[in-house]
Amino acid sequence: MAEVYYVGVDVGTASVRAALVSSSGLLENVAQEPISIWEPHTDHYVQSSTQIWDKCCTVVKRVTQGVEKSRVRGIGFDATCSLVVLDQSFQPVPVTHNAGDRHKNVVMWMDHRAEEQATRITRSGHGVLSRVGGIMSPELQPPKLLWLKENLKESCWDKAAHFFDLPDFLSWKATGSLTRSLCTLVCKWTYCPPDGWDSTFWISIGLEDLVENNFSKIGSATCPPGSPLGDGLTQEAAADLGLQPGTAVGASLIDAHAGGLGVLGAAVKGFALPCEDQPISARMAVICGTSTCHMAISEQPLFVPGVWGPCLSAMVPGMWLNEGGQSATGRLIDHMVQSHPAYAQLQEQARQRPVDSSILSEHYLNNHLSSMAGSLSALDLLGSGLHVWPDFHGNRSPLADPTLKGMVIGLSLSQSLDDLALLYLATVQALAVSHRFCVNDLARPQTASLHVQLLRLPPCHSFHLLSSHLDPAGYAPYFRGNEKSRTRHQNSLFLWRLEQKSSVCPDPRQRYRAACGAARPDGGRVAGSSSPGCACVPGLQQHPGEVTGTDAPAAGHMVSSHPRLLQLFTPLSFSFYISLLQLL
């Protein structure tokens, strides 16, 4: 019997990727294309839906080249939770002050232009805010919509007839179906199944016009992720993509949620792990890219201050999703490295190394730090005089404060490559400690510290930078494969969570501000703690009972261990598969 195939399309922040996968799950081909990002003003980030669709078509044609089209049985899309604006004729409506930028019709997920609108929505105190951690973020769609109405009424708002989340735009472009995915509407638009839209919310924030015609501008019909849409690919879309008309199309997912489904559903049996018999609700997915998303699912709704959710059936049917995260992680590392005076020197020296060009700079910096340290144990101490506060693009959780800014303390006049490497290390360490509090936030509803048993990472992570992330959380590494494969990062990396109990603060936002101490399982402190020589976050003091790790809890705080699984993942490895999982 002839093999059949499925295509998954993943639209990230800066690139579009596609994969061709066989019905048996084998990855047959991949392709990638960059997409443009424009920043017309500070904190305004826009893209073009026309360009994004064109790049989707390019990568799909590349991965299916040479494959009989009748053997491609389905296609699915995931994308960032960006806002797409179209007029009555489904043509782009610009979202910038320059009306000539007609093709720039996408307000990106990381666009923070609507901070003031988000604050006003939070002050409304409406009940739907309980589904977003009690605080409306400018990264969600309601404040962005309100900003467009208040600032671009004539050039944008009055002309707009359709507002899509980017994943839903791609599904519509492929099928002509206006049905939205529950993933996008529940997580980013305040849609609450089974009741649906709450008209009182939209009226209370000044967007009563969206209620008209049964919410036709933002979605009258919804369906679970992966549901078949319309009659499959339209004639026009099929021609664009190089596939057959009628090819099945699954309802989309947000890119991080696609990755989350792939990670949470990944097999863990066969490695003699204590988590093998745990349910899927005993796992957590950490999706790393431009930003980082921490995702956990549960059978009952959990309300956590500063954490998005609970969102019903947004990722796994019938289960509730909570999502914490860091607004800038990969992007912050890029910013720190690329803005340093020694970046040109780094690029030149990195090119001389026989390494995959896609990771030249990171690989070189990792090796350079190892040479500077002399040993892995000394690596943490390299940056003892350099401190980074990583909230350069605000704090998504646990503080839920988009107005926060970043800091670097301990700079000198040095412009050397050594100085760049240390700044890189301190940034990674700072993100690691921030990551720790995001993880602990999602454990708080169980009135227990997160007791992670397994951390699964892709092979592209370097060992010593993993240590920066593991030490603050008390992880110890276990590698599959031999020393050679470990060094070359060819096999999966598994990290056992050492057993320890942690205290729980009544409000994780208070704990984040109060403590950044990173306790090793043996009771020692690591770089990044609030002890002298902190290499991560400056100016934080430990409060008794508010520090996770080996510190004793304050009176009245419940302490226990809760088995969970944490799997760290980069979208490039897995999010391709997600749309395929919807169809298989």
Quick description:
This protein is α+β, with helices and mostly antiparallel strands. The chain has 18 helices and 21 strands. The longest helix has 27 residues, at 417-443.
Fourth CATH level, the homologous superfamily of the largest domain: ATPase, nucleotide binding domain
Global mean pLDDT: 79
CATH class annotation of the largest domain: Alpha Beta
Supply the number of helical segments.
Answer: 18
Number of strands: 21
Total domains, how many?
2
Strand fraction equals 15-25%
- Which blocks of ≥5 consecutive residues have pLDDT under 50? 445-464, 474-584
Q: How much helix is in the residues?
A: 25-40%
CATH topology description of the largest domain: Nucleotidyltransferase, domain 5
The strand order across the widest sheet is 14-15-13-12-21-18-20-19
Please give the radius of gyration in angstroms: 23 Å
- The N- and C-terminal alpha carbons lie at a distance of 17 Å
Q: What class would the helix/strand composition place it in?
A: alpha+beta
- Overall geometric form: globular
User: Main sheet?
Assistant: 8 strands, mixed
CATH architecture name of the largest domain: 2-Layer Sandwich
Oligomer: single chain
